[in-house]
Design goal:
This protein has about 425 residues and is mostly beta strands. About 5% of the residues lie in helices and about 60% in strands. It contains two helices and 25 strands. A 14-stranded antiparallel β-barrel has the order 3-4-5-6-7-8-9-14-15-18-19-22-23-24. The protein has a two-stranded antiparallel ribbon with strand order 1-25. Strands 10-13 form a two-stranded antiparallel sheet. Strand 5 and strand 6 form a beta hairpin.
């Protein structure tokens, strides 16, 4: 008797349910960084389970058993018999240090859910939910004012929220060694930031500011990949992607509360930066893979909402020279001793990577002067552990750890460990089982 496995509807239902159930979870912040009070927050790590252990290297990778939304051209290589669903969460431990002051903070966050499948010959599709930016901080500073009477005041800063993306993408392979693709994304999110200042000589709050913003916009990513066969054992894949920059057409509001309340509003406040990425991946016998990426985020030529307050006059307007162009360089690789071996440890995917990134924000130093934000350096390693049963040997439990140091001159230094846990379900759609 031949039985055809009808699990597509169940798998799609599970994928959509997990995504929708976690929309509220996305409102939780994926960062504990005071630097997220600047700009649009901390740019999120948009990598998925397969490349997190490689520090997000992605542009040249097109493994047909994994989902790679960072270059949509990769969908063209999805296996014709599979449906892939990948979801992940992270555990973050952050150590902050400024002078002699130290603090430790922890958080857990559901991060992404993505899926991919073959539509028809040489055409692949992917959809999912990814983070875009994160805002999350809570700290205070105490200062003294000297005069006829010494006054101590404490400024408390809090913020939460972020921007997230739901996308649908397609890729097409018009010829054997070339693919192109795109993602059409919907961006949404809310954020809230507050500053409270309390003076020791008065029980009343002398300053209270609330910043609020809401985003509802779109995002378009384009990608290409070209495969160069070197010989029977080695291939080189070149990849590139391009994010179309545009205004998010949103409005942010600042409420300045003193003796009375004054509202300031700025239109076209946020934007999607034009982003250009390029990279390569080398594949040796499907056992050793390594690659490198370079990404440029064009922030510097955009104006951004800024407070100007000299004690006498106050304004909240868009201003130039508030942001910087960001660059990110990443390298990483994967080694699989023998994915078809009967020995468990030889089937494990071993991954390692590192990256360096410059900031896109400018921050205020102790004198209130704008200086370049923190630079980042990170290292990561991970494993892809096969989930093996009688009918599926391609699903993976992806575990990775990442260390990142983020620091700016004479300001806060952040060291954090992030543990990432992802599960890639790789199911055969049309496999036929035969029972005697």
């Amino acid at each position: 008797m031949i039985i055809k496995k009808h699990s597509l509807a169940l798998t799609l239902a599970l994928a959509l349910t997990l995504m929708l159930e976690n929309v509220d979870t996305y409102a939780q912040s994926g960062t504990n960084s005071p630097y997220s009070m600047y700009g649009m927050g901390i740019l999120s790590d948009r990598s998925t389970g397969f490349n997190r252990g490689m520090s997000g290297v992605s542009q040249g990778f097109n493994d047909g058993n994994q989902v790679n939304p960072m270059n949509p051209a990769s969908y063209a290589n999805v296996d014709s018999l599979t449906f892939i669903f990948d979801a992940g969460l992270s555990l973050l431990n952050t150590n902050l240090k400024e002078g002699d002051n130290k603090r430790n903070a922890k958080t857990a966050n559901f991060e992404y859910a993505v899926a991919a499948f073959r539509v028809w010959k040489n055409v692949g599709c992917s959809f999912g939910v990814l983070p875009y930016t994160n805002v999350g901080y809570n700290f205070y500073r105490t200062n003294k004012e000297t005069g006829a009477v010494e006054d101590t005041y404490t400024n408390t800063y809090t913020g939460s929220g972020g921007i997230h993306e739901a996308y649908l993408g397609f890729a097409w392979k018009p010829v054997k060694f070339f693919a192109l693709g795109f993602n059409a994304g919907y961006l949404w999110g809310d954020y809230s930031k507050t500053i409270t200042s309390v003076h020791s000589l008065s029980s009343a709050t002398s300053l209270f500011r609330i910043y609020d913003g809401t985003v509802r916009s779109y995002k378009i990513d384009l990608g290409v990949q070209g495969i160069i066969p070197i010989n029977k054992d080695n291939t080189l894949t070149l990849g590139a992607s391009y994010v179309i920059g545009h205004s998010m057409n949103n409005t942010v509001e600042l409420l300045d509360i003193k003796a009375d309340t004054t509202a300031y509003r700025v239109g076209d406040a946020f934007f999607v930066p034009t982003t250009i990425s390029g990279g390569f991946a080398w594949n040796h016998k499907n056992k050793l893979k390594f690659g490198a990426d370079f990404t440029l985020y064009k922030f510097a030529d955009q104006d951004f909402p800024t407070v100007f307050d000299n004690g006498k006059t106050f304004s909240y307007v868009k201003a130039s020279n508030q942001l910087l162009d960001r660059t990110r360089i990443a390298v990483g690789g994967e080694w699989i001793p023998d994915e078809y071996s009967n020995k468990f440890f030889e089937r494990i995917h071993y991954k390692v990577g590192g990256y360096y990134a410059t900031p896109y924000i400018k921050v205020s130093d102790s004198q209130g002067k704008l200086v370049d934000g923190p630079k980042e350096i990170g290292l990561s390693f991970g494993v892809g552990v096969p989930i093996i049963n009688t009918w599926n040997n391609r699903s993976l439990l992806n575990l990775s750890a990442q260390w990142v140091r983020s620091s700016a001159s004479n300001l806060i230094t952040e060291n954090y460990w992030r543990i990432n846990v992802g599960i890639t379900f790789n199911e055969r759609w049309f496999a036929k089982w035969k029972f005697e």
